[in-house]
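User: Quick sanity check before I run a bigger batch. Here is a single chain. Can you write out its predicted 3D structure?
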Amino acid sequence: MTSFKDHFSGIAQAYASSRPTYPDALYDAITAVVPATADVWEPGCGSGQATRGLSQRFAHVYATDPSAAQIERHWAAQDKNSNVTVAVELAETTALPDCSVGLIAVAQALHWFERKAFFASCERVLQPGGVLAAWTYQDIVFSDDMAEAAENIRDDIDDYWPPERNDVDLGYSDYPWPFEALPAPNLWLTADWTLPHLLGYFGSLSATACYRAATGRDPVETHAAELAEAWGDPMTVRTLRWPLVLHLRRKPTLSAGQESLG
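Assistant: Done. Predicted structure follows.
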């Protein structure tokens, strides 16, 4: 397999247990433009945070990730009765046949892809009239009593983000998308978490892994006491919020050549 930027194999267990799930409003926006009979390709599926919601709404999901460690922890790898097929595969060189899916759904992964090659794959495997849906969530918006402690851990890891992180901050706004845009709502991702879950989330970030590798120190451990003081009882549940940016793009029903003949 061609090499890929592997930021998550080493923290695959933390990723599987600590990442948030996506709101119904996100899937509602997608189902409004894609029929339930569609087959779905989900490249960069990780351990399956989005796969479950997709599988509940569409006929079949082909969920792929280049990391074998992520696929091993994907819930569908253990559930042989689901309507999900998982595979270790690059997004840029999928084995899917031409015009074989009605939806390509990319959850918090598009910034890791080589986009020119990936968008060429989208053009090839997406059926005419099919939809490319890609979304990303940005930094947690903390309440005032948590903001300073959270900002201190962010300050430590800020220089250790891979350059692709800037794409997330921009909400993929500068990408050369292959198809015309469909309207997409403004969304929020929310999660009701205890402090240990939040610490696990911070530990699952790619910048945290890079910081550990470069310094030999764990920024989560460094700031855990400060975060705990701000949080209060660690078993208290708080609602956390992330801005969630969704892009919807529809492949033309007919090619330009076909349209001109019509």
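The first strand starts at residue 39 and ends at 43.

User: Great, the batch can go ahead then.
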